[in-house]
Protein 1
Amino acid sequence: MRPYDERLEHLLARAAKVFAEKGYHSTTMRDLAAASGMSLAGMYYYVRGKEELLALVQERCFARVLAGAEQAMAVAGDPVERLQGFIRHHVTFFAANLAEMKVLSHEANSLTGERHRKVNAIKRRYVDMLERLLKDVAPEEPRAERSAAAYALFGMMNWIYNWYDPAGEIDSDRLAGLIARIFVGGFAEARSTVQGG
Amino acid sequence: MRPYDERLEHLLARAAKVFAEKGYHSTTMRDLAAASGMSLAGMYYYVRGKEELLALVQERCFARVLAGAEQAMAVAGDPVERLQGFIRHHVTFFAANLAEMKVLSHEANSLTGERHRKVNAIKRRYVDMLERLLKDVAPEEPRAERSAAAYALFGMMNWIYNWYDPAGEIDSDRLAGLIARIFVGGFAEARSTVQGG
DNA sequence: TCGAAATTCGAACAACTGTTCGAACCCCAT
DNA sequence: ATGGGGTTCGAACAGTTGTTCGAATTTCGA
């Protein structure tokens, strides 16, 4: 890896951490300079400006999420198992990349213009992926409920950045299992086994 | 109601809307002046500064949430019914006060110092309320799971501000029913009826 | 060793921010 | 009518922000 790419990577990693801690708008370019060990002006050799920094953090993180999700769903066959795989991947990836994922979740509308549209388009694809999955899991469910359920699941998973402590009592595998149990048990199975369909 | 209180109320309502649309840090006092019909300096007769505006919006909204939740849980007797009442109240209140609740959820860490501690203390009480409820609903569940499940439920409910459209296909009652079904079916009932635990 | 390209950075700028201050205005009891 | 308290606001201030620019420094193949 070229030194240039290494330094850009380093800058992005530090930026993600600071964005996650202080929030994008409260973070100054001087904060980022101090956190990355570069000078204020020096960062502009690697990046057009503050917003491109945020865009790169979000786009690169989202690309990894998408790739991992497609891989996680390719293995299993049963729709419920694929759904569980999707959930497990999203939650464990989130917990393993807390800073980046917090920036992706919490600063979703901090981008503007073309960059905002680009990230939103990726997000749309990711949501569609889950909605198609839910269609296989619960075909009899009304479309409005299925769509809302998808967002409810994303809510459970993305809210993590507000409370989850990686050093705490529950590890990300247990958390993924819990969320999968709640959603699959409540959405996919409740109709036939609990509420009597 | 005195004219003074009416104008303060009006200012807070407009501020909540603008904070929800643009985010707290991106909205300027000049934005708020334009949105409220006051002059820039005029707002400082009603409020010490920008942060007090955010604090008042959050504290007043949270007080209403707490009062409504206690009332919603006082009626029913069965733990599962009380949990359903809690969920139904939170979701319908959220949908009926989207701007304020978005500011409460999304700008949770935009306050500083004493104001930040005060709102966090209220939040702690509210989370405790749900955790006690979950203890009644699923006493055999490990404490770590129960606590994580509480946050998962708050995630489903608070994520609403990222996607819910009040003019859309699904009204807040249906949404509350769906979320209650997912959580109760997946957390409270799954152990005994689905997973056979 | 030499020189050009790549990389760094101190210093400054222009724009925007929240806040303040004093004068003006309005309302109403006297 | 009039004086005083409650209310409004134009104008300005001091601090902070993202960004730029040109010069200094480093890197490295020939």
Note: The two ends of chain B are 57 Å apart (CA to CA).
Protein 2
Amino acid sequence: MSERKAEQAAGLARHDHSACIADALDVVERTCATEGLNLTPVRRRVLEILLETHTALGAYDVLERLAAEGLGSKPPIAYRALGFLVDHGFAHRIEGRNGFVACAHPGERHEPAFLICRTCGRIGEARIETAELDRSADLSGFEVERTVLEAEGLCHRCVKVS
Amino acid sequence: MSERKAEQAAGLARHDHSACIADALDVVERTCATEGLNLTPVRRRVLEILLETHTALGAYDVLERLAAEGLGSKPPIAYRALGFLVDHGFAHRIEGRNGFVACAHPGERHEPAFLICRTCGRIGEARIETAELDRSADLSGFEVERTVLEAEGLCHRCVKVS
DNA sequence: GGGAAGGTTGTTATAACATAACAGCGCCAT
DNA sequence: ATGGCGCTGTTATGTTATAACAACCTTCCC
């Protein structure tokens, strides 16, 4: 059990970010097409905004962007689009920051885990197993439905600087 | 590594709750005494309020209680006392609920993990290791300082009812 | 004793995050 | 054509959190 290799968290390492954005958009578009989901202009634009950066954006940050583009100016607009993206696994909520990030593994079923840099705010997304917690839950007769795993610390860049 | 036995999460199982409260208060008092921490009336009372229930209380829930007792009526009073308790490991913040619980293992150095029942709100606290996340972090050159691990689901009682 | 320093509480004001509730509109299936 | 549904637009409000400063008290040093 759980002998799968750990892998590097997506988002923190150097990468071709334009390709990163394009790939994610492409996957999400396909997924919506095959699953009959309605990727409306607002929803698509919110996803694009999240994809621009591997940091957590607050709903009001997103809303500001939308408003500047004439796509909606009231909080529910942003919260609803973000809700859609989160519900379908295209984005994740970062509890520790009251914010949202685009999913780094869209279209793949996964329990996300996050590495959040407290200095630069960048966020890496790893796929993680929580075998030990599950065992502990079993012992208590607890049925886990959803797991939030967020680690805060310093990313490789910020470690060097500090 | 990590072959330690998982153990049942504290707080969810049947237990003598008066003893649970008394023990925790006792440990916190001793710890404050030996570490020169100032467990003022407000701080102590907030801890007692948290200890009454194994559910997450919001800062404003706590504040309401304090106000009723003449111990303070403005948000900073509650947030400051909660901050003190969290800073010294006598309480934990539950990110997924914007709330706080008394620590179930005060005085022991530990990374907490929580089992949160979405129906009754009760919270179990387990000690957990996050070896796989740590490996993933290492691969990214990320230095983890703090980990939030919260599992939401159904506790043993609520599983039966549903 | 006088007075500076540090820590805690008291208070005002406001910032930041989130949702309830309802109105209107377009699509499309019966 | 019309009724249902999903999405957007809007008002209003609810909830969570903190900045900034004033007042007070203890401690410690001169």
Note: Residues 38, 40, 42, 72-74, 76-77, 80, 98 of chain B lie near DNA strand C (CB under 10 Å from a C1').
